[in-house]
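Quick one: structure tokens for this chain, please?
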Amino acid sequence: MLSLPPLTHAQDADKETDAALMQAAEAAKKMGMQMPDVKKIMEEDEKEEAKAKAKVQAVVNAPGPVALPAWTPKVPEFTPAGPLAKKVIDDAPKIVQTGTSPLTPVALADAWEKFKNDKYSFSRTRSNINGTITQTVTYRDMDDTTQEVTMEAKREPSEKITLVTLSSPLPTPADKDDD
């Protein structure tokens, strides 16, 4: 005979949450205050989050050119892993190019840093976590701040090849109701 354990933990947690909300509502009522409808607020937040994700995905799915800014610095000894693509990264639509280079992340970032000039703002971050070296360099056009490109160069301690990711944000249309 097969016996399955009851799914009581999740149900108990929901009951405890509902009981706590009821107690809070009763306490607020006694003090003459109105308790906000937490479930309704959570549902509205979920709808807004889904709407934002759909908007980002629509930008990625939209037809149009896939190109990094024309002024993007060259990556020395870079071998692309495929064509440029539109992707969602960290909840933002981006144009992305991945590939490899035999140069170290530091050498690649140093090469990109030589591109610095007054027309572009520049930032560079460095990290070494458990021997994995990552260098990130970003340039943003000072005249058109929507024009930006980032190179992330990352190499694991036992590897001889650096993984390189170039990315540039895709513009997203502003919501009509965003004021």
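Residues 44 and 50 are 10 Å apart (CA to CA).
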